[in-house]
From TrEMBL:
NCBIfam families: MTHFS_bact. This is 5-formyltetrahydrofolate cyclo-ligase. Keywords: ATP-binding, Magnesium, Metal-binding, Nucleotide-binding. Substrate binds at residues 56, 61. Its cofactor is Mg(2+). Belongs to the 5-formyltetrahydrofolate cyclo-ligase family. Its EC number is 6.3.3.2. InterPro entries: FTHF_cligase (IPR002698), FTHF_cligase-like_sf (IPR024185), NagB/RpiA_transferase-like (IPR037171). It holds the Pfam family 5-FTHF_cyc-lig. The keyword Endoplasmic reticulum does not apply. GO terms for biological process: folic acid-containing compound biosynthetic process; tetrahydrofolate interconversion. It catalyses: (6S)-5-formyl-5,6,7,8-tetrahydrofolate + ATP = (6R)-5,10-methenyltetrahydrofolate + ADP + phosphate. It comes from Pseudoalteromonas ruthenica.
Length: 203
């Protein structure tokens, strides 16, 4: 396959999958969020102090609101990504509280206002729940095309016990048989949808 064909395939999958998830109704989204937490809790061990990187749903992504509520109730710590203030192609993760001051980033997505004392170094997160546009059952992930997660996760250790577990979060309809994978795409340890738990990296 030529580089052009490869890029075009990724563009076509992104377009189709974004349209599909954006066409889900409010009640389908609510049901997805309620089912998602059940599967998430099968994968993650959440106790007091557990550090979890998440996201605020955008563009039809599944909402993590029930998961955030559960984390707060268990005195675990949800964190949200912030575009890094100096290295603007990377993400920082910062503690997210119900009353965290927020601002809108360049993509129109809410993020916590930078507060250095609330930043959690990426390697210290126990879990990172990544949004994605498409996935396959082998753990490959296609994002929105910015490379933010790939760059941020490129430096974490290979040993699973020394790094956050990467859990892709998606609607079931975002699965494809096989994604065109780039050398820099960071694979996922798990993918959790409202219907299925995929464990491609299980050892
Ligand atoms: N580790 C890296 N170092 C430098 N550039 C990178 C790295 N990872 C990805 N990129 C660059 O980012 C661009 C977008 O990557 P890609 O198409 O995989 O985005 P994505 O996975 O869809 O986005 P995201 O990671 O934000 O969800 C690529 O052109 C690539 O050159
Ligand atoms: Mg990628």
């Amino acid at each position: 396959m030529s580089a052009n064909q490869f890029n075009q395939q990724r563009i076509d999958i992104r377009k189709k999958m974004r349209e599909m998830r954006k066409s889900l109704s409010t009640s389908e989204q609510k049901r997805a969020a309620d089912d998602l937490i059940i599967n998430f809790l099968q994968v993650a061990k959440v106790t007091e102090g557990t550090q979890v990187g998440g996201y605020l749903a955008n563009d039809g992504e599944p909402s993590l609101s029930p998961i955030f509520e559960d984390l707060w109730a268990k005195k675990a710590v949800p964190n949200l990504p912030i575009i890094h203030p100096f290295s603007r192609t990377h993400l920082l993760f910062q503690r997210y509280e119900e009353n965290s001051p927020m601002s809108t980033n360049r993509y129109g997505i809410l993020e916590p206002k930078l507060n250095c004392s609330h930043v959690c170094p990426v390697a210290q997160l126990d879990y990172i729940l990544t949004p994605l546009v498409a996935f396959d059952s082998q753990g490959n992930r296609l994002g929105m095309g910015g490379g933010y997660y790939d760059r941020t996760l490129a430096q974490i250790p290979a040993d699973r016990s020394q790094r956050p577990l990467l859990i892709g979060i998606a609607h079931q309809c975002q699965e494809v048989a096989q994604l065109p994978v780039a050398s820099w795409d960071v694979p996922l340890d798990y993918i959790v949808t409202p219907k299925t738990i995929y464990r491609p990296g299980a050892q």
